[in-house]
Prior knowledge:
This protein is α/β, with parallel strands linked by helices. The chain has 7 helices and 7 strands. Strand 1, helix 1 and strand 2 (37-42) form a beta-alpha-beta unit. Helix 1 packs across helix 7. It starts with 5 loop residues before the first strand and ends with a helix. The model has no long low-confidence stretch (mean pLDDT 97). Residues 6-114 form the NADPH-dependent FMN reductase-like domain.
Amino acid sequence: MPEQIKCLAVAASPRKDGNTALLARQALAGCREAGAETEFLYLADYAYAPCRGCEACSKTGRCVVADDAKVIFDRILAADRLILAAPIFSMGICAQAKMLIDRAQQFWATKYVLKRPVIPEAALRPPRRGIYIATAGTNLPGVFDGAIRVVKYFFKMLEIDLTGTFCYPRVDAKGSVKDHPTALAECLQAGRELG
Ligand SMILES: Cc1cc2nc3c(=O)[nH]c(=O)nc-3n(C[C@H](O)[C@H](O)[C@H](O)COP(=O)(O)O)c2cc1C
């Protein structure tokens, strides 16, 4: 029997049960419907520092800072599917997500400096895929552009195929995404297709 697909949702907003977390849970529910094993993780439950820019990872492919970033990346690397949910703060991806993404510099170094695979056993595993989910309070033109660019870079570093971005403007108050006409159903369906 084939192994169950592992889906991990990483919720980056500090607002627990906020809009992006709700959408991430919808997507995970879709993954479960499709038969996948699921895990939900709040970045707010972990303590990790920003990248020091020390470039030690260019020599070893590993980060020298010992904190929870390792725990989070171990979960991400073990997953076959990644749902990254992170709102727009100050016209970009929220700092909690960006800080983690900067810490993924070790994978960039592994790939492009050391020319080693990020996941050596990748060929023996299901192809890794994922989606990005975001909300923003406004509908300013280009409000999601910077975040999507960063997320594309992150997924590339981690050798995950970014198959969809689900971005919802004009969603501000906590939980107000529940009133959105399509967001919940779209994220549920995206999860079913991932799982
Ligand atoms: C510190 C902060 C900065 C924000 N900056 C923006 C912004 O630049 N543009 C925007 O459209 N919304 C902005 N917002 C609104 C959030 O994107 C919006 O409320 C979103 O739905 C929050 O998602 P969450 O409930 O998952 O945290 C900001 C919110 C906070 C708390």
